[in-house]
Amino acid sequence: MKALLKRSMSLVLALGLAGSLAACSSNSSGGKSSEGSGSGSIKLTLWDQSVGNTDPSAKLLPQIIEKWNKEHPDVQIERTGTTGEQYKTKIKTSLAANEAPDLFYGMGGGSFMQPYIESENVLEISSYLTDEIKSKMAPGMAEAIETDGKIYTLPVYTHIANLYVNTELFDKAGAKIPTTYTELLDAVEKLKAAGITPALIGEKDRWPGMYWYDMIAMRQAGHDAVIEAFKDPAKWDSPDFVAAAAKMQELAKVGAFNSSMLSMSYDEMLGAFNAGSGAMMFQANWVNAGIEDPSSATKGKVQVIPFPVFEDGKGKATEIFGGAVDGFYVSSTTKHPKEAVDFLMYLSEQLGTQGYLAGAGLPSWNIDGLDTSSLSTLDQSAADIMKTATSFITWWDNILPAESAETHKNLIASLLAGDITPEEFCKQMAQLKPTELTL
Amino acid sequence: MNSVFSNKTAIAIFVLPTLLIFCGIVLVPIFVSSYYSVLDWDGVGKGAFIGLDNYVEMFTDARALHSIRNSFLFAAASIFIQLPISLLLALILASSVRGEGFYRTVYFIPVLISTVVIAQLWSKIYNADYGLLNTLLDNIGLSGLAQDWLGQKKTALAASFIPTLWQYVGYHMLLMYAGAKSISQDILEAAKIDGASRIRTAFSITIPLMKPILKVCLVFSVIGAFKVFDLVYVLTGGGPLFATEVPSTLMYTTIFNTYRYGYGSAVSVFIILECLIFTVLINKFFKTE
Fold first, then answer.
1. Candidate from A1, A406, A413 with C-beta closest to B241
2. Which of A4, A258, B110, B207 is the most exposed place for a label (fewest CB within 10 A)?
3. Which residues of B touch chain A, with CB atoms under 8 Å apart?
4. What pLDDT does A377 receive?
5. Where do the structural domains in chain A lie, given as residue ranges?
6. Structural domains present in chain B
7. Residue B1 has what pLDDT?
C-alpha cells in the first residue's frame, strides 16, 4: 500500500512539475522574445486585435508583415492576433507587468492609452520621425496625433461619423433628405406618417446615442466651444449646450427614434438598418461594409450625408465628428527602438492606404495616385466629406477621462428616456472632469 | 484501501493539490481584492491608500445602493418564487408519476445550457420589434400589453429575473427530488395506512424530512442571486438607466469601464461578505428551528 502511495505521489509531483514548466515556457514565448535568433537577425513581436472574418485588416496585416520580412531579413516580425475584448485584457495585463511586446495595437487615444503614456510604458517616437514621413500623412494628421507636443503613435485609418439615409424609405414617405434641423424634423414627421421608423439608435450600448448628442452639440455650439468645454467643464452648462440637449430631447419626444432603443444593442441597430427597418442612422464609416454587403436589403439604397446644420447653430457642416484614433504603439521596454519605429512607420502607412482600398476606413495618409475606382460609393462619399473637413473632434468618450465618459453616456441615456431636463443634463455635464489630452 | 484513508498524512497529501489550486484561485484573490479595496487605483502604476473611503462611497452612492436593493429583491424572488416551484415539481415527480424520468430530464435541460445562450434566447423572446412575447400578445388580442420589456425601467427588472428563475428551477428540483426519494418508503407507507392524504403526507412527513436538502437549496439560491452576473450582463448590461444593475455588474463597469479598481474591488469584497453572512444566517435559522 505504502509503495503504491509513494509511486502515485511521485507521479503527481512529476506531473505538477511538468505542468509548471509548460506554463513557464509558454509564458516566455508569449512575452517578449526580442533576442536575436542565432543568425544575428532581430526579432520584433507585434500584438494586434485584427482577427475577425469581416475585418479587412485581418487579411492585410499578414500580407504586409510577410512583405516586410522578405525585404528586411535582419528585422523579422512575429505577429500574435487576439480577439477584441480579450485583447484589451491581455495588453493591459502585459503592460502592467512590463512584459509588453515590442509593438502593439492601442485603442482610441485618450482614455485607453493615456495611463500607459503617463506611466511611460510607451515609447515616445518624435525623435525617430522624419519630415518625409510627416509629409506623407493626410493634412492635419501630424498635429492631431500629438499629445503634449509629443508623438507616441502614427495614424492608420480615419473614421468619421455621418448620417446614413435610406433613400428608398425617404422616397416612399415623400420626405426630403435633410440638410437643416427644420428639414430633419419635417422628414421625421413625414416618415412617421408613412409608418416608417425615422431613425435607429442602439442605446442599450449607450455610445450610439452619444454620437447623436455629440454631433448635435457640435452643430449647435460649434467646434471651438466644444474644445473649450473639454478643458473647462463648467462651460458645458451654457445656453448653447442646453439648446443642444433640448434638440436631442425634442427629437426623442417627436418619435424620431425607435421606441425600442433602450433595449436595442449596436449590432441589432445595424441589423435593423441593413434590413430597412429604419430610415436614418448616425454612425461612422465602419458600417459601410455591412450596408454594402450582398446580404443587406439596403445595398445600393443608402446615401451618406453630413449631419444637418442648425439654423441657429454655430457649427458648420465641415466640422467633422471623428478622426484617426487607433494606432500601433512601441513599448518602452523594447530592445530595438529604432527598428521598431521603422516598422511602425511602414506598417501604419501600408495598412492605412491598403486598408482604405479594402474598405476598412478612410486613409490618414496621402492617397494621391491610388486607384480608388474599386471603392464602394459609400466609402467614396465618406472620403469626399472628409476632404471638405476644416476640423476634427474625435469620439467624446475617448477625449473625456474614463469615468467622465461613462457619466456622459449615462446622462445622454437619461436625456433620451426623458428622465432629466436639458438644464439638469447640462448641470451634471458641468461636473465632469476636464480632459487629460491636449486638444 | 481503508488504511490509506485513515492515514492522516495520506489524506493531507491527497488533499494538497486541490488545496493549493483552491488557495491560488480563490483565497489569494480574495485577500488581494481586499487589499485593492482600500486603494484609490486605476489599474496601472501605484495606488494611493485611502482607508475605507471606497466602502463609505458605496454605502452613500444611490447607484450602488440601488444595485444592492436589486440583488435583495432577486434573492427574495428566488426564495419565494423559484424554490416553491422547484419543491412542488420535486414532490410531484417523487410521487411516482408516469414519465418521471422524462420530466426530470426536461426540467433539468435549462441548467445544462450556457447562461449566455439563455440570455440571448430570452432577449429574443422579449424583443420589442419581433419578440415571441409581443407576437403572442398581438395574436391573442392583447396588443395593448405588448411593450419593450427590457427597455423600460418598470418592466426590465422583473423581465431579467424570470430567465434566471426559470433556468435554475430544474437544478433545485433535482436536489429536492433526490432528497424526497431518499425518504424511506416505510414511513410513507405508515402514513398511508394511517389514512393521511397526499398533501398531508407532503407537509407532515416529506418536507420536514427534506430539511437538510432544503437548507442547501436555500443557500445556493440566495448566493446565486447575490452574485448573478452573466445573465443580467448579456440581457440588459445593467440598463436601462441602471434599472437592472446588480452589485456584480456594478463591479464590472467600475473596474473595466471607468478603471476604478479600488472601488470595484470594494464592491466585490462586499459581495463575498454578503454571501458569507447569509450562509451563516441561513444555517443558524435552520438550527434554531
1. A413
2. A4
3. 1, 3-4, 10, 13, 17, 42-45, 123, 126-129, 148-153, 156, 236-237, 239-242, 253, 257-260
4. 85
5. 37-135+325-363, 160-322+385-429
6. 59-288 (1.10.3720.10)
7. 58
Q: Are B279 and B219 in contact (CB under 8 A)?
A: yes
The partner residue sitting opposite B129, judged by closest CB among A116, A260, A417, is A260
Same fold across A37-135+325-363 and A160-322+385-429:
yes
- Interface contacts A/B by beta carbons within 8 Å: 86
To the nearest whole Å, the CA of B208 is away from the closest chain A CA by 44
Type of residue numbered A33: S
pLDDT digits (tens, 9 = 90+) for B232-272: 999 988 878 899 999 999 999 888 888 888 999 999 999 99
Q: What is the pTM of this model?
A: 0.80
Cell of B247: 452589485
- Burial label, A21 (beta-carbon count in 10 A; 0-12, 13-18, 19+): exposed
Query: Which secondary-structure segment (H or E) carries A305?
Result: strand A302-305
The reply to whether A232 touches chain B by the CB within 8 Å rule is no
Backbone dihedral angles phi then psi of residue A284, each to the nearest 5 degrees: -90, 170
Q: Which CATH architecture has domain A160-322+385-429?
A: 3-Layer(aba) Sandwich (3.40)
Does the pLDDT at position A2 exceed 60? no
Q: Which of A97-101, A142-146, B190-194 has the lowest mean pLDDT?
A: A142-146
Its CATH architecture, for the domain A37-135+325-363, is 3-Layer(aba) Sandwich (3.40)
The neighbouring-strand residues paired with A180 are: A309
In the chain, the amino acid numbered A55 is: D
